[in-house]
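Schema walkthrough. Field components (list of strings):
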Amino acid sequence: MNFKIIGLVIFAVTFLYELLLAFLDWSSKDNPTPENVRDVYDGEKYKKWLSYHGETCAADLVNTVAGFVIYLALLGFDVLPKIAPSGNVYLAAIEVLLFVLTLDALTGGVYGYVNSMVIDEKYGFNKRTVKTFLVDQLKSYLISVVLTVGLVCLFILIYEALGDWTLLLFSGIMAAILLGISALYPFFSKIYNKFTPLPDGELREKLTALLTKNGYTVREIQVMDGSRRDSRANAYFSGFGKTKTIVLYDTLIDTMTPDEIVAVFAHELGHGLHKDTLKNAPIAVLQVVFIVVAIWLTVRTGAIYPDFGFAGVNYGFAYVLASVIELPLIMPLFSLVSNAVTRRAEYRADAHAVEEGYGKELVSALKKLSGDSLSNLAPSPLLVKLYYSHPTLSQRIAAIERAM
Ligand SMILES: [Zn+2]
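Field assembly_structure (string):
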């Protein structure tokens, strides 16, 4: 049994799956727009959507193919063993990781540049300067290097000391880190954005009234400078429990009426009341545990390494195999389940906004959000099942109108 051949075959299969998704996305341009969302785009805007959609699909396709070709070459021609000659397990792992993370940052940077600074710029979405873009890329690169190198070294330390018990201990550590990161999200978001309190007025009063009515204490309502990067609007809750911070993008305040913003928040509140973030946690933890199991199995199976040109076990390479080959094989199953769960949660959250009496405003807010961001109004049903975390705009409006 040659692990290299098996690995490359699996890699090719996951690549074909990515191509299928790309094809489904691209071909949705031929789907008829559902009746209840035809007023989102007029003739002019529909043409704009068509060309925007075509260009983003092309960029995604090039990125997918380039990623496949690069890793096929790296793995096929045994490039990684040549750049990691160290005898020390830690150094050898770090050499592989630094090489791969830097390569990912470069290819991801080029893709991000084309997406944001070229395509989004052309359609008026992009508000980043080249400097903001580069600084963002650098911050993300440093965070990924520190996290990945740190965690892989911790894994080596524990594995060399405890052997198979690592599986339990490290899964626990990873799950704790995962939950910690979501708890620390407000802190992380400050690395990228500035927050200011929402001034007193109609919007503040209405939001506070909605929350107190539902038994929530609002710690702070903050406005985030989303317009520094992008013209598209958004809003979210952050923090845990009954004391929450509301974050509104400044772009949301600029484009929507106070009632539409409150409607968006009544939806978010629906998520809060149903504890939807908490319900997603087990799936996220399961995913993390799977990655740990994949790395553990790869580290344990010593015969893998000579097949890929290594003299012995390389923990950095185990991470590469787990993230590039093993995870993409199982990921579609995870997304199938987790997306079905989140799509149901979206309907429930919309229903809550209707209960609060904001059904009509939610429909107009959703239409504005979709129209302003040139969303796909008629994605292929198979793509929605496989890939979409939210129901389509048409499906949501139909459900909201039934509930009203
Ligand atoms: Zn939602």
